[in-house]
Amino acid sequence: MKIVFITTGGTIDKIYFDAKSGYEVGDPQVIDILSEANVIFEYDVHNLFRKDSLDLTDDDRLAIREEVKNEDCDRIIVTHGTDTMVETARALLGCAGKTIVLTGSLAPARFKISDAGLNLGMAIAAVQTLPNGVYITMNGTVFEASNVRKNREANRFERL
Amino acid sequence: MKIVFITTGGTIDKIYFDAKSGYEVGDPQVIDILSEANVIFEYDVHNLFRKDSLDLTDDDRLAIREEVKNEDCDRIIVTHGTDTMVETARALLGCAGKTIVLTGSLAPARFKISDAGLNLGMAIAAVQTLPNGVYITMNGTVFEASNVRKNREANRFERL
Amino acid sequence: MKIVFITTGGTIDKIYFDAKSGYEVGDPQVIDILSEANVIFEYDVHNLFRKDSLDLTDDDRLAIREEVKNEDCDRIIVTHGTDTMVETARALLGCAGKTIVLTGSLAPARFKISDAGLNLGMAIAAVQTLPNGVYITMNGTVFEASNVRKNREANRFERL
Amino acid sequence: MKIVFITTGGTIDKIYFDAKSGYEVGDPQVIDILSEANVIFEYDVHNLFRKDSLDLTDDDRLAIREEVKNEDCDRIIVTHGTDTMVETARALLGCAGKTIVLTGSLAPARFKISDAGLNLGMAIAAVQTLPNGVYITMNGTVFEASNVRKNREANRFERL
To answer: Which ipTM score applies to this complex?
Structure first.
């Protein structure tokens, strides 16, 4: 089994820069997390963007879609900021022959306490057990791309 | 959706006692991990044992099987030590009408670097996507109970 | 021995809010860190401000000075943002009869990797070993308030 | 300013080996902790032993004393297991011309929650502020080697 990871930035990869009193998107954390979990499957990581998902444009979403379509591997996980994860998931609908799972985190992976590991674990299980289609794994739940929204007030994902 | 977690001990729950210069099984970590990941599903946690899995007896496995069978919920995750996780998984075969996933970790959940969150995330996705049966989620892989072993030399799970 | 901690905010206490895609100053971390280190001395914690130190005004510095002067305890640690820590240290010069140590961190205490614990440990040792005066403990070094600056380009403290 | 660190093992360096269901002393953690804290002083690290301190012999203590005496640097920090830290501290009394601080931790440095960073920070401040002599920094307190014991029941250090 092989899985391809496409990273686009988002909270999961955020680092803190004291010199600027703020955060920026840093190196993709997925590589460290996979290494720390001693995964035995084959994988590639493509670093496409390092953006807060509010800054992703329609052209960026088209680029993600092209990357997914051109990928030989049929199991693809996209790490992504949470604010527009649902929009990108829908922009990936209709990519035939592939199981695509988007995930990310509400707290940076670099925090002692973060949902990054659990969310990524969910994506890894979902991508190897689900039929072709587009899914989101957040808040302990496997959502279908067509039936999910981010509730910003409650800061969580939920079904429509 | 509801998930029942049955905890039996193992490395995932290990704590370090300096006074004894050693590790012992502590409080189940699954509650903290679920809370930190802001999961939105309903769940119960039953703490059945606090044992290194090498110390689990046949009677203990029967007790786990009884607990699983008597449970109304049809999605059950068992956290377990890794050394005899495969044996317990097989002792749960044939519990009709339930999807059962066993998981644990190779490094204690209390470590900065641990596979606990990712493994538990995999179990949570697997238990909601897979048909009835018994599974193990370790090393980034969803295994069927009948087709997995722990390779102790390499310290990882693999297919037979 | 008793130590009084005055918290004013800064990176050490920063938390990440996904809903706002940014960091804000959260609860003082000093209480958790002291608890986790099983300290045996008596202490009080006064939470004075929750500010990025660039937002501290002259009136705020006067309020910190008043708090320090009115304090019965002669060993005082001030946790503070790094950008204007030197300015506040100098504003505390001349508080007779007290050993005052300012510290903070370049990475939030909530990160897996942070200088918060080490810096706070330095402050705790310095406040119980040094004569009356005002000091800063950052970057592994005990600085006198009159002989330190923050080098923003290098993101570290150094002697003048 | 230069500090020499001599590592001898102990809980601070303990790692967990799932394959053996137990812990062993791993690589010295002091190098990682110093790097993560961006310390600006010059330092060397000498890795002398990797032992649980209950396994240190009289010959081992003599070897530590020789290492300390032969060291050109006059500021020396010894990381050490907690159970016999007091014995080693006393075996170092009388090394003229040097400030020697012993420290370690009650929870492994690899844990999310550990006293290792704070204790090491205390040692770093103490070794640069105290007169020649032998000290222990544990539980938020700077102890003199002649006036400290480990209370094993309470799992903390205290004055005699």
So the answer is: 0.96
